[in-house]
Amino acid sequence: MTDIIQQARELLVKAKSVFVLTGAGISAESGLKTYRGHDLSWRGRPYQEIVSTDYFESDPRASWDWHLEFRDTARRVQPNAAHLALAEWAKRRKNVTLVTQNIDGLHERADHPDPILFHGSVWITRCTRCEVWRRDYALAYETLPMCLICEAPERPGVVWFGDTIPRRTLELAVLASQDADAFLVVGTSAQVAPASEFLHVARERGVPLIVVNPEAPKGPEGIHLQGPAGEILPQLLN
Ligand code: NAD
After folding, report:
1. What is the whole-number distance in angstroms between the Cα of residue 143 and the centre of ligand 1?
2. In the annotation, is 83 catalytic?
3. Does ligand 1 lie within 6 Å of residue 108's CB atom?
4. Res 221: pLDDT
5. Contact at 8 Å (CB) between 209 and 183?
6. Contact (CB, 8 A) for 99 and 173
7. Apex CA 26: angle with CA 119 and CA 72, to 5°?
């Protein structure tokens, strides 16, 4: 183990409460593409256009098709050593809040206790009228899903570009970030607001920040553990 990993381990051991933020990079070693650095366009449209309310409103069937394809891709891959190490550690040491920007369900499949799904999940559907959510594992729909309560059309339970974060989700994440005395940031470019704001909160509060990423981060400074999450996290957390 390198000195810098040992230094980060000691910080985490001393911390009473740890805020963990993950992004697409933690699922890269499972085989899912990250957002930055890949062409995620689909049927000739850029990713940003597909994951938007405008796209759903203009063509709900096509929007659902993209999300059902993502479900199919996500279910074919497995949680990797990083998801598993994080889940085991969170169960063992308690006082860890995981906020993930990922929509793939891999933290849940790694049995992570109560992850905060900051951008929702592709495995959730949400009513367009009464906003009731439900888990849904279908891979195809003959007819598009309707709310079981009020019978209005359902939409994917993903927070799209231009959507606001559901209030309760935001509150839980903000409270955890205020309580934390160490931040662990894994596999995110931290360019998507408001999730990126948590790193500024850490800097303003002077809370130690540990960043696990093969690339040098552009955001606030901290201890940078340079490498893939699947190699670094088992050493850091086990
Ligand atoms: P991003 O694509 O902007 O950044 C990914 C980061 O992960 C990069 O900094 C990259 O250097 C790093 N990385 C790559 N491989 C890694 C590895 N093996 N270990 C650790 N780090 C690694 O992703 P983001 O910051 O999460 O923002 C993208 C947005 O797109 C999010 O809102 C997310 O919801 C969405 N998205 C989700 C998924 C998913 O659920 N798997 C996939 C693509 C996009």
Report:
1. 32
2. no
3. no
4. 74
5. yes
6. yes
7. 65
